[in-house]
Amino acid sequence: MADYDFDVLIIGSGPGGYVAAIRAAQLGLRTACVESRETLGGTCLNVGCIPSKALLNASELYYEAASGALAKHGVKLGSVELDLPTMMADKDKAVTGLTGGIAFLFKKNKVEWIKGRGSFVDAHTVQVGDRTVTAKDIVIATGSSVTPLPGVEIDQKIVVDSTGAIALEKVPANMVVIGGGVIGLELGSVWQRLGAKVTVVEYLDQLLPGMDGEVRKEAAKIFKKQGMEIKLSTKVTGVAVNGDKATVTVEPAAGGAAETLEADVVLVAIGRRPNTDGLALDKVGLSTNARGQIETDARLQTAVPGIWAIGDVIPGPMLAHKAEDEGIAVAENIGGLTGILNHAVIPSVVYTHPEIAGVGLTEEQAREKGEVKVGKFPMAGNSRAKAIDDTVGWVKVIADATTDRVLGAWIITAPAGTMIAQVAQAMEFGATSEDIAYTCHAHPTHSEAIKEAAMGVRGKPIHV
Ligand code: FAD
Ligand code: NAI
């Protein structure tokens, strides 16, 4: 056997790459990870999941204090002031703590971090700066970047992408968000809570593509009620920056009269695309599909034996936990074990208030596949939600009409992101709605609403 520098070389240290590296090292493989950023952790830890969630939490605290929302619970405050630099510093601290944590875990597990951009020389060799590194197996975990809007230049001051939007120096009076997907709604919510007037421009006729139809409609209602202006079926035809303002020209997606929107900040959030530029995939005979993704088999191996790919750079939802699970599976496959993945059960969560979460099939997808029964329970009937006076939302459980197997669930309520794990686990165990309905849930918890929705699949919930 050829003598390689490493058993496994991973390109990219996001939640896919760093998890793969640690798992490979745990399995006794000599492992290195190439990362071109200053810090480990990829999009998620540096400019994605973590900083956005830190700001979502802090902005919610500010909003509750400043809007008088706490006063109705008998918590009266004096004047409330926003200290944006401290809020941003706190967010940065969360990022540094976690990215530093990965560096620590790399050292602990003896994973070598090779700093720089990696590009293929051949199927077992990667060039990083002036270093040539060889490995028996190579994992591409290069993630994704913001999809640009043709003709619109990101300057990260007035026209920003998500990276600029988590680092604004002041609260914009008016913010126009292009794209009513997850980033648009999460980061739009952050700045709205801090005082911006937010207008979301979405090309499709509903927000949140890919989610359950009823969820998408309900989301539009909820965000409108919170004061967000939402322009559905609307396309942006131009963004002109003049001084410290921008003018966004929009028109109906189907064509019609144009109108202009004035903004202090424009957030472009129309999706992300896989990172493959500069990898020199051609040198190993690999190409990308029509969506720019690298295709793999079920074991995550590409068309070239010994080259594997995971995370945002391959097909599937662009989610950190999907990348992490693939990271573990790929390392186990390389290490001679059988990596376990179930792409049918990947939860997705929008971390707004309320949170919006789903797993499995949407009701539309389930109905296309066959007969289904649906149970729905409003949070207005949930005692915990009532006790804290936050009753927006509902739980929907979708089950196969014949076998009663749970096919999917959708939840809108403050802790929906935490609650959805229960349904994901139930689905992994092949649970029926009856299994959930007869599982004892602690009282008073939001999770009781899942039990009641499951009761509603075949019979009736109690509290409606
Ligand atoms: P990435 O995290 O993108 O990491 C890839 C790494 O590879 C990068 O650090 C990059 O620098 C490096 N790299 C690329 N090319 C090379 C090269 N040639 N050589 C060396 N290094 C290279 N997902 C969730 O599940 N929950 C969330 O709450 C969430 N919030 C998000 C919020 C925002 C604002 C954004 C933008 C994304 C969010 N995501 C969230 C999505 C999540 O960040 C991604 O799905 C996840 O990071 C993908 O992981 P990855 O390992 O595939 O790639
Ligand atoms: P997205 O795909 O969620 O939403 C983009 C939206 O922009 C879509 O609704 C689309 O129809 C719309 N759009 C596209 N072109 C447009 C145009 N020209 N004009 C108006 N609207 C247009 O993408 P987003 O929000 O950029 O997020 C990227 C990825 O990051 C997502 O795939 C998501 O999985 C991930 N992410 C996940 C989070 C989470 O799990 N909580 C948080 C943030 C991001």
Count of discrete alpha- or pi-helical segments spanning 4 or more residues: 13
Gyration radius (Cα, Å) is 23 Å
* Count of beta strands: 22
CATH topology of the largest domain: FAD/NAD(P)-binding domain
Principal-axes shape call:
globular
Terminus-to-terminus distance: 68 Å
The CATH class name of the largest domain reads: Alpha Beta
Question: Helix- and strand-based class?
Answer: alpha/beta
Bound molecules: flavin-adenine dinucleotide, 1,4-dihydronicotinamide adenine dinucleotide
Question: For the report, how would you describe the main beta sheet?
Answer: 7 strands, mixed
The CATH architecture assignment of the largest domain turns out to be 3-Layer(bba) Sandwich
The CATH superfamily of the largest domain bears the name: FAD/NAD(P)-binding domain
Helix fraction, binned, reads 25-40%
Report mean pLDDT, rounded to a whole number: 97
Low-confidence stretches: none
Share in β-strands: 15-25%
Summed up, the domain count is 3
Domain Pyridine nucleotide-disulphide oxidoreductase dimerisation: 346-454
Cofactor: FAD
Disulfide bonds: 44-49
Enzyme class: oxidoreductase
